[in-house]
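Hi support team,

I submitted a single chain yesterday and got back a structure, but I'm not sure I'm reading the token output correctly. Could someone confirm the output below corresponds to the sequence I sent? I've pasted both exactly as they appear in my results page.

Thanks,
R.
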Amino acid sequence: MKEKRSGKILQISSLLGFHAAPAGAAYTASKFAVAGFMESIAPQLRKFNIWVSIVELGHVLTDDTRPFGSTPSDQWNVISSLIPGEEERKIVTKMTTTDPENVTGTTIDTTQEIAELWQKVILSPKPDFRIQPNETVTRLSAQRFLDPTGNKIIDYWVNKA
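Hi R., thanks for writing in. Yes, this is the structure output for that exact sequence:
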């Protein structure tokens, strides 16, 4: 790629690569590490017209997740049932849905939607460094910059326990 002075490096990641959850420390740490690595090589490679991108996915409807239901609202019902406490469910629903009254706007994407997103990124001459598949993941991604102290997410998890 350097010799050709052209190319793209695409990394698949997760919203847990920027929005840590206490129960997933090892998974989250690995996603944070890869994102940091990609962010550190991006400026070096851009000099060679090599574009580095991280695609930050939310929940994806796959064969492995289908037992939870085949629609976003079916899956959300299962996911939310795992969250203890009505107040906590309301908070997480608000954080992860575009419309809390209509859970079909959750972060659940289909594999077809993800494939279309990948195609868009691949065909883009200058793709963004961070790419999210939907408005909900974009909002969650923005939260890390809205609270530069990081205290709000820590307090959220402390108060949830």
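A quick pointer for reading it: Helices lie at 25-46, 72-81, 86-96, 111-123, 135-146, 151-160. Let us know if anything else looks off.

Best,
Support desk
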